[in-house]
């Protein structure tokens, strides 16, 4: 088996290894001498820890750190770190992300109950895609520094966010070429209006998880190049469309039984869009009076 694999071009072998979970890629080092260090050249690093055995957490963190220290590639295309253990230390996560940044990472995909990002991440010159997911909402969230500059970051995906929205806007303002933004807000903190002033943005997805029936703030959209808009969840913000001149498609998805006048006002703001998708049967039945 090993001899047949060795007939393949090196670039194909490395591609195959990059498609594997990193733990499996490292295990190929026992195949033969030629495979012993091949995994150190993979460009996709994928780590997953389910947290079923909390006593193994330290061993897992040490394994990820050893892999990052052993990497010989000039750049890491993807660093995926999914931690489902509620007791994981945020400092450990921060140090691992910092190591990935120093390897010129292009994509970061982080799932963790506790997040504390290194300063190096907020000035990473190679980062093009950032995905952050908070696994457990009752833990504290990350804090964004005042100085952010991510010159190549085009995609941001933040899920289950429940801390200060100011952090998110600090991050956005440091991304001069941002094209796609997905933001799932788990909790509103009465911090004023959400003003999205992003000239380069083409896709925007906003999901609100807080269950409340009163208006909290306004969502102001100044996005002249926006082509697609998605709004879902429980709406408790009035939308003000100051510039949607390029909008082609829009989708709205209301939680069942959570229809309010704000949804109809949102529809009125985007009534001229070419393609419109509406989800929720109860919402559709209410459109007869719209």
Automatic annotation (TrEMBL):
Q: List, alphabetically, the InterPro entries matched.
A: F-box-like_dom_sf, F-box_AtFBL13-like, F-box_dom, FBL13/AtMIF1-like, LRR_dom_sf, LRR_FXL15/At3g58940/PEG3-like
Does this entry carry the keyword Membrane?
no
Which PROSITE patterns does the record associate with it? Answer: FBOX
For this UniProt record, the keywords arranged alphabetically read as follows: Signal
Renumbered to this chain, the signal peptide range is 1-25
Q: What does the record list as coiled-coil region(s)?
A: none
This protein's source sits in the domain of life called Eukaryota
CDD domains linked to this entry: F-box_AtFBL13-like
Q: Name one Pfam family in it.
A: F-box
Q: Which residues form the F-box domain?
A: 2-52
Q: Signal: present as a keyword of the record?
A: yes
Q: What is this protein called?
A: F-box domain, leucine-rich repeat domain superfamily, F-box-like domain superfamily
Name the source organism.
Helianthus annuus
Q: What is the lineage of its organism?
A: Eukaryota, Viridiplantae, Streptophyta, Embryophyta, Tracheophyta
